Amino acid sequence: MSDVYRALGDSTRRFILNMLKEGDLTQKEIVAAFDISQPAIKKHLNILMEENIISEKIQGKYRVYSLNKGKLQLAYNEMLQYIADLLDNKLESLKNYVEKGESRDDQG
Amino acid sequence: MSDVYRALGDSTRRFILNMLKEGDLTQKEIVAAFDISQPAIKKHLNILMEENIISEKIQGKYRVYSLNKGKLQLAYNEMLQYIADLLDNKLESLKNYVEKGESRDDQG
DNA sequence: ATTATATATAACCAAAAGGTTATATGAATA
DNA sequence: TATTCATATAACCTTTTGGTTATATATAAT
Description:
2 copies of one chain form a homodimer.
Chain A: H1 4-8, H2 11-21, E1 25-26, H3 27-32, H4 38-50, E2 54-59, E3 62-67, H5 69-87, H6 91-100
Antiparallel strand pairs in A: 1-3, 2-3
Chain A binds a DNA duplex through helix 3 and helix 4.
Pfam families (chains A, B): HTH_5
Keywords (chains A, B): DNA-binding, Transcription, Transcription regulation
Organism (chains A, B): Ornithinibacillus bavariensis
């Protein structure tokens, strides 16, 4: 299992991902959304890129960042599989659980 | 949001959870499974207990740890929900994905 | 060509995380 | 009772993490 936990383990990074959900953004735009410095944001972006959760495209003097949804989906599946195995869960009920937050037929 | 990312963000702790899936274990047994010291393991156990992902039962001189499956499921649900929101995920396709490991229709 | 803008990078810092050893304590056993 | 075993805890160390400021570089605009 890749270390998506690390990448998602920081609230600034989670917020960056939330921003990128709405659409691609330049580094400048991302920096502007926070109270921390450009190098600090850059480090977060680097971490997200190391985990392949976002990717970077050079556009002149800009760096445009976008969500790597394929990778996120893989991460999602890995985690879902992991928890399903761990709990001997029926994927069906887990699916409901995530989607609706309901039907906790606790088969622990 | 509780700090599940922190609790699950360490591979030693995830391994401990895997061990506890098989059944309750004493601290001694858990320590024996790793190359790190008893106090180090104890710290990991404390973190997992702080997040209520495991619980401890005193049995004489032993501490018996058990997985709190309901809470673990909640923790994973939280993370899965976060990623699902990022992806606007249809969980139907994910079901296939996990079950058959196929159909990577990269919708990046 | 000069200046301004966007980003990259180096050097540094404080706090947190994960580990250690040494030792105390409480329960079981010889 | 003395000893051993399982665990707890204190003190400490190193590395990582998340941040800083200062400065370099590359592109864009004057």
